[in-house]
Design brief:
By secondary structure, this protein is α/β, with parallel strands linked by helices. Helix content is 46%, strand content 22%.
Length: 194
């Protein structure tokens, strides 16, 4: 078993639903975790299907909550956004963009393939300073409340399994195959360096 706990990052597009649900769940299980988004802006469902409510990453969850409360309390209560933002602001002040974070992690979990691609692209564009290895793993999780909850259980099981590995760097491919068979989900995996 590794002597130190894995430093984990969970990343989705806007650091609102999937990454925050996993952040909350993993943190409660004692896992050292941070969460991020990779989008240029934070997007939440708007009143019209193709017209999202957009914020920048400097807007806190509390500010988003108050803004949506004023705009249409009934609508944003009914669709669960106010509940989600209330959960989020209990976890951390506001969304964070992965590309702006210079902290190092042992494991980065992404919730959809395009986010995985953006994380890998960002890591590969950085100047390598320490040559510390980081595993980047993607498992597709639909962006809805139910799948975010189910996905957080899966990510937690995966983290706990990887944490218990005697030789993570050499065993990870085999461990991921076991998880693929167990869950029926495909995992993408690559190694990057800091």
């Amino acid at each position: 078993m590794p002597s130190l706990p894995l430093r984990v990052a969970v990343v989705c597009l806007s650091n609102q639903n999937r990454s925050m649900e996993a952040h909350n769940f993993l943190k409660r299980r004692g896992i050292s975790v941070r969460s991020f988004g990779t989008g240029s802006y934070v997007k939440l469902p708007g009143r019209k299907p193709h017209k999202p409510t957009v914020y920048d990453f400097q807007t806190t969850y509390g500010q988003m909550y108050e803004d949506l409360l004023k705009k249409d309390k009934a609508f944003y209560t009914h669709n669960g956004i106010l509940h989600m933002l209330n959960r989020n602001k209990r976890i951390k002040p506001g969304p964070e963009r992965f590309q702006n974070c210079k902290d190092m992690f042992d494991l980065i979990l992404t919730c959809e393939e395009r986010v995985y691609d953006l994380v890998v692209e960002d890591l590969n564009s950085r100047e390598q300073e320490t040559c510390q290895l980081v595993h980047v793993i993607n498992v597709d999780i639909q962006d809805n409340y139910e799948d975010a909850t189910i996905g957080s259980f899966l990510l937690c099981d995966l983290c706990q399994c990887l944490q218990e590995s005697e030789d993570l760097d050499n065993e990870i491919e085999e461990l991921l195959l076991v998880f693929e068979e167990k869950t029926g989900k495909a995992f993408l995996h690559t190694v990057c360096f800091y």
